[in-house]
Write a structure and sequence with these properties.
Cofactor: a divalent metal cation
InterPro entries: Calcineurin-like_PHP_lpxH (IPR024654), Metallo-depent_PP-like (IPR029052), Phosphodiesterase_MJ0936/Vps29 (IPR000979)
Protein name: Phosphoesterase
Strand content: 25-35%
CATH class: Alpha Beta
Mean pLDDT: 93
CATH topology: Purple Acid Phosphatase, chain A, domain 2
Shape: globular
CATH superfamily: Metallo-dependent phosphatases
Number of helices: 4
Largest sheet: 5 strands, mixed
Order of helices and strands: EHEHEEEHEEEHEE
Enzyme class: hydrolase
Structural class: alpha/beta
Number of domains: 1
Distance between the termini: 28 Å
Oligomer: single chain
CATH architecture: 4-Layer Sandwich
Low-confidence stretches: none
GO molecular function: hydrolase activity; metal ion binding
Helix content: 10-25%
Number of strands: 10
Strand order of the largest sheet: 3-2-1-9-10
């Protein structure tokens, strides 16, 4: 079983990011979905936890990919900020891109809205924005089963 801390859109709100880390100390890996890579690098400077990041539309000074495919246990996951796929308007494009990469799950950011829905057979998960409501997600993967907990500090 693997437990992921899924975060996005910290937008220099390092204080809220620190609160999330104190609130959720037990995870195996961090997935950061863009717009605040520097915040995440600073927050996990002394951590031994693996971090997988992609850049967002506000991370212009970084030479990190804007999208990746990762495998966690038995699930292939497409991770991207989402701005190249018009995710504020539709999830059809991200669903199509996810399938074309051989994945059944997409982790996205950009909209700042927590989401867990299935479109055209693709499960699309957005943890929301760290910077606005202290939103994040805990993803638990056990073989081919994926459980999502959408959370927020300011609920």
């Amino acid at each position: 079983m693997t437990k992921l801390l899924l975060i996005s859109d910290s937008h220099r709100d390092k204080q809220t990011l620190s609160k999330i880390l104190k609130n959720e100390p037990n995870f195996d890996r961090v997935i950061f979905l863009g717009d605040g890579i520097e915040d995440v690098e600073d927050a996990f400077l002394t951590s031994s936890k693996p971090i997988t990041s992609v850049t967002g539309n506000c991370d212009t000074d970084y030479c990190i990919s804007s999208e990746r495919v990762i495998k966690v246990e038995d699930i292939n996951i497409f991770i991207t900020h989402g701005h190249f796929y018009d995710v504020k308007l539709t999830f059809k494009n991200i669903a199509q891109a996810t399938k074309s990469k051989g994945c059944s799950v997409a982790f996205i950011g950009h909209t700042h809205i927590q989401t867990d829905e299935t479109v055209d057979g693709v499960r699309i998960i957005n943890p929301g924005s760290v910077s606005y409501l202290g939103n994040y997600a805990i993803i638990t993967i056990d073989n081919d089963k994926l459980n999502v907990e959408l959370k927020g500090l300011k609920d």
